[in-house]
User: Fold Crp/Fnr family transcriptional regulator from Thalassotalea algicola.
Amino acid sequence: MSTDNLHKLPDEMVLLLCEFGQTVFYSSDKLIHARGDVKPGLSVVISGLVKVGNYGLDGKYCLTRVLEPGETFGEFTLFGNLPRTHNAESLGDTEVLQLNASEFDLACQRIPQLKDTLLASLATKLHDCLEILDDVRRLPLTVRLAKTLVTIAKTRGTNDVVIRQSDLADVTGVTVLSCHKALNVLTEQGLIKLAYGRIIINDRSAFTRWIEQKSELTSL
Assistant:
């Protein structure tokens, strides 16, 4: 079952939404929303990237995900009246479409398929979270790292994954040293190549088959 396209809103829907909200420009490393914010609203990445993560009490930053154009955040504040769980910050020059609660309600009236599209996106995110939770409990780091790389490659539509090892370590929730060791194992097995600031998957189909064998589960 492929969910590759469900993380993002269709381009035509993003264009329609632009009529209801405000597109805000953020230079690099600017705060868009903070953990704990309760003001409801939907945000859509228009251009650039948004990094989502949290700062611990010791000041250490833990990256959770990098959102790309078409991806949304803030749904919990609208549908669940819940506070934001993470800080959202611009990664490079970024444009984000912001809709407050009343603007979102109006958009839903004018775009009947909007809520169903967001529901499918949220279901996909929950599906991914359950997979990650199972991975953390069952799989060795090498396999978890491989699954993360394949997911990023599918989302970006390329086997040349531009990501720093430190960011990959943050996303996976391990130290940079542990991440580096796991990547070396994948390199030695001929599954990936390491380059400056990026990781190249040699053959995504073969990589996926290797992951399925190591996961010891039937594929979805």
